[in-house]
Amino acid sequence: MYFRSGNQAAHTSIALDGPSGAGKSTIAKAIAKDMNYLYLDTGAMYRAFGLYAIKNGVDFSGSWSDKGNEKKLISLLDSFDLDVKHVDGVQRVFVNGEDYTDFIRTNEVSKAASAVAVVSAVRLKMVELQRKIAAGTNVVMDGRDIGTYVLPNATVKIFITASALARAKRRYKELLDKGDDSHTFEQVYSDMIERDKNDSTRSFAPLTRADDATLLDTTNINLEESIEAVRSIILSRLGLE
Ligand code: DC
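Above: inputs. Below: predicted complex with 2'-deoxycytidine-5'-monophosphate.
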């Protein structure tokens, strides 16, 4: 283990924010393991609600918000009971007792997640659970609004980004590695740009770097180098260097 923990009265929280494909979740997992902290993937929570909405007939194609979908999403929240559990160190998301974890990484669910994340009522429900989890333990949380909104007093904040092209290439490779060849690179790239726009232009808690977050651009560095860079930022922020 690289880090000592428990040297502060309150729990320590590490906020990793940034657009999709920047490497956040892989980095967060590695750091959480090193530090023996809980890893909370907040995107999985929005994905779970996106999938729940699809299963309940919400159509996210085209300009989804023009179809009265927002109202439907808000009403679906009443019957949406989300549980986040860690089984053997791996996060699993349950909706009304059903394990959604293995079904939330498709391109369709990515789009739905970005769309539901625009709705304030949806965000408030997720944020409540995220804060509750962080209050009880040392945590590495990744998302879009952790440093700016969910945990404005996080011990360490890092904004991880990369060029849209580099991120799309990584996402495309991930899909292919999973055996999903149903999308062209051009589709993945344009979806990525669309999602970036959606996530960063929404009015409530948009994707943006907190003033006190350290910026890390991973366009020209590999995963190991990115993890090392994050580790070093954390060590220095925690005064352990
Ligand atoms: O990190 P991800 O790709 O799994 O996130 C899926 C979507 O969820 C993303 O497009 C935006 C949304 N999201 C969010 O709005 N706030 C978060 N803290 C995490 C994710």
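The chain has one domain: 11-236.
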